[in-house]
Specification:
Lysis protein, mainly alpha, 80% helix
């Protein structure tokens, strides 16, 4: 075998080895960049998810506090209403109060329907 063919073969093997090493090294660098980008995106998604969870918990707490305050106010009878139900509707000395007046069922139903529309 002539010397030039041995040199040519050695050069081709050396070039192939360098190309393989460059390809492998380049692929590893690209893969490392992709992995770093994927980790950063995952961390950003986790952070956003945690922020959403904390905002939802704060909103739930505010809602529950408002609901409890509204429920507490709804169960309290105002002094005006209490006085109106026990105010006398006839001469002093008579035992009749506003809460004692009979009201027909049809009138009560109309009042209930009117309150439901409001």
């Amino acid at each position: 075998m002539p010397a030039w063919s041995i040199r040519l073969t050695a050069a081709l093997v050396l070039l192939a080895g360098a190309a393989g090493y460059g390809y492998h090294h380049g692929a590893a660098r690209v893969q490392a960049r992709w992995d770093a980008k994927a980790r950063a995106e995952q961390a950003a998604a986790d952070t956003a998810r945690e922020a959403d969870r904390l905002r939802a918990r704060a909103a739930e707490t505010r809602y529950e506090a408002q609901r409890a305050a509204i429920a507490a106010r709804a169960t309290q009878v105002s002094p005006e209403v209490r006085h109106a139900l026990h105010a006398p509707i006839c001469q002093p000395g008579a035992a009749l109060e506003l809460g004692d007046v009979p009201v027909p069922a049809a009138v009560l139903q109309r009042l209930h329907d009117a309150g439901a529309d409001y």
